[in-house]
Specification:
CATH topology: Rossmann fold
Number of strands: 7
Radius of gyration: 14 Å
Shape: globular
Oligomer: single chain
Strand content: 25-35%
CATH class: Alpha Beta
Helix content: 10-25%
Number of helices: 3
Number of domains: 1
CATH architecture: 3-Layer(aba) Sandwich
Length: 147
């Protein structure tokens, strides 16, 4: 069951709320996957969460570079926010060139991965799955599943 939001402000409030609840795992990186059709808000959700976590630089979609890593301010529960867009990848093994396995071993990494269905064969069970469903031009349902 998800929460339906009807404005961008409500959508962003949910992303901020979500980011405030995150805490590192002792077993490795915290993996958050974001699924939804084009334009559902995957990157907007990540941008808002990044700002809430203290990222000051502009967070843009890594569609063409595939991965961007942002250092988080001291005092935050994570050291790095890793933003991966798998849209252009053809299979899970393509994640290897990004050092994905190494990134996943570090519990100080928070990884937001868009388009997990493109690389599902190489993903461990995500810590958290976010599914964004477009209801109308302005309305989205945000479903958050904890692994």
């Amino acid at each position: 069951m998800g929460k339906t939001v009807n404005t961008l402000a409500e959508f962003e409030m949910e992303a901020v709320r979500f980011s405030s609840l995150l805490s590192p795992s002792e077993k490795g990186a915290t993996l958050v996957t974001l699924s939804g059709e084009l334009g559902a808000g995957k990157t907007t959700f990540t941008q808002t969460a990044a700002r809430a976590l203290g990222v000051e630089e502009t967070v843009t979609s890594p569609t063409f570079v595939l991965e961007k890593i942002y250092l988080l301010p001291e005092g935050k529960p994570f050291k790095r926010l890793v933003h991966i867009d798998a849209y252009r990848l053809e299979q899970g093994s393509d994640l290897a060139s990004l050092g994905f396995d190494e990134l996943m071993r570090d519990p100080t990494n928070l990884i937001f991965l868009e388009w997990p269905e493109k690389v599902v064969d190489a993903l461990p069970s995500p810590t958290i799955q976010i599914i964004l469903t477009v209801e109308s031009e302005d309305s989205r349902t945000i479903s958050i599943l904890y692994g």
